[in-house]
Predict the structure.
Amino acid sequence: MRGELPGVAGLLLDDTRAYDLAALAKNGGMVRAYSRVFSDPSQWAALSPASYVDGRKHPPTFIAYSRADGRGEQSTAFAERLRASGTDVTPFDGSACTHMSINRDFGEGDDALTVAALAFLKSTVG
C-alpha cells in the first residue's frame, strides 16, 4: 500500500483551484461556479482537499494545471503542501493550455498532458 489510502495507487488531479476553499474565498477567487457549489462557508474546510494533507503521506499524485484564473498558483501551493507530507508529486505545467483545453483534450491523443499522465500512471501502477 502506498500512502494512507488503501487500494489507491495514485491520484490524477485536473486543473482546479478549489484545493483550499477558505483561501480561495479570502483571495477573491470564489467565482460564481464555485460559490454556487460551495455556498456554505461552514463546510469549506471539510470540502477542501488541503484539509486532509498535513501529517499524512498520500499516494503519488499528478497535478495538471493551466495558468488561467490562478489555477497555477493554487496547484503549486497544493503540490508543495503534499510534498511537505512526504508525498511524491508530479506537476504538469499546462501554461500552453487553457482550462478548457486541458479538460477537453485530456485523453484524446498524444498531446503533452495525456502523454505525461500516462507516463505517471505507468510508473505508478505499472
